[in-house]
Write a structure and sequence with these properties.
This protein is about 30% helix and about 25% strand. The chain is of the alpha+beta class. The chain has a three-stranded antiparallel β-sheet, with no helix packed on it. Strands 2-5 form a two-stranded antiparallel sheet. It is extended. The mean pLDDT is about 90.
Length: about 160
Amino acid sequence: MPVCHHLAHLAPRSLPHQVCNEFQLLIHSKPFSISNRKDYFGNDVSYVSIDQAHLGLTVTATSRVMVSPTPKVSANETPSWETVVKQLQKDRSADGLNAYHFVFDSRGVRLFPALKDYAKLSFQEGRPILSAVSDLTERIHNDFTYDPRATTVHTEIYEVFE
């Protein structure tokens, strides 16, 4: 292969309870160029170009990350999911806008009636949002079995749901 370009998302993010102190990316065959940037979500992205013929590619990412305990949050002390929905509709803070884009359909997930009905079982009226999300996550874990041969990243969500 004479020329290739790769996009790598391998560096850990620094977050309130996780700090990446060191990160090293080793690439063989030797790259012609490496550039780094942050993507829309704040993830570090490395763009690598190799301009010579090569028979293989090895990428090694090494990180040193300091992790501190996260504070415990009682699921029943979080606001109701309806309160969060209303807040997201008018919150124009950076955090509010960051969360708001998850409200919409994406190429990977499009809302359809059966999916909405499945989620409604966890999101009863007045239920605290963390309690609802935890219940939905547990139901998904219990109701679905992962089979790596059954789907690909291109499989539509409604097919997975069926």
